[in-house]
Amino acid sequence: MSDAEDWPHDPDGEHGSEGRRKYGHAILAKKIDEEEDFPLSAAEYVAEYGDDPVRISYEQVVSVAEIFESVDHEEFADFVEFHRVLGAAMRENGYWFYEGSEQFVDA
């Protein structure tokens, strides 16, 4: 999906970015309530949000489902595990555009 009309909402519109342009990991995390949603089922998360767009860079938008294709966890115990696993999957698959991100990852 590459055209804005293919998405349930525009990733740069009010619904997609909450009034500001947000990218990647932030969009995934904003869909979760840290206090109430854990343990979190990966399948349920994708069932609910899989079609939602995630802006990876100024020129690339992918779906939540595409990001989760390489996630091998069935469940996340807490917010930290969710961040760690999704961050690793995004870096491994070219969905992490932040310069210098490798300095924050254990080699």
The SSE string, one letter per element, is HHEHEEHEH
Give the structural class. alpha+beta
In which range does the helix fraction lie? 25-40%
Largest sheet: 2 strands, antiparallel
Distance between the termini: 33 Å
Could you walk me through the main structural features you see in this protein, from its secondary elements to its overall organization?
- The N and C termini lie far apart (33 Å).
- The chain has 107 residues and is α+β, with helices and mostly antiparallel strands.
- The longest helix has 14 residues, at 79-92.
- A hairpin with a 2-residue loop joins strand 2 (53-57) and strand 3 (60-63).
- The chain has one domain (4-104).
- The strands form 2 sheets. It has a two-stranded antiparallel ribbon with strand order 1-4. The chain has a two-stranded antiparallel sheet with strand order 2-3.
- The chain is 35% helix and 12% strand.
- It is built from 5 helices and 4 strands.
- Residues 1-21 have a biased composition (Basic and acidic residues).
- InterPro entries: DUF5785.
- This is DUF5785 family protein.
Summarize the structure.
The chain has 107 residues and is an alpha+beta fold.
Tell me the layout of helices and strands.
Blueprint lengths: L13 H4 L6 H6 L10 E2 H8 L3 E5 L2 E4 H5 L6 E2 L2 H14 L15
Considering the chains and any ligands shown, give keywords for the structure.
DUF5785 family protein, 107 residues, alpha+beta, 5 helices, 4 strands
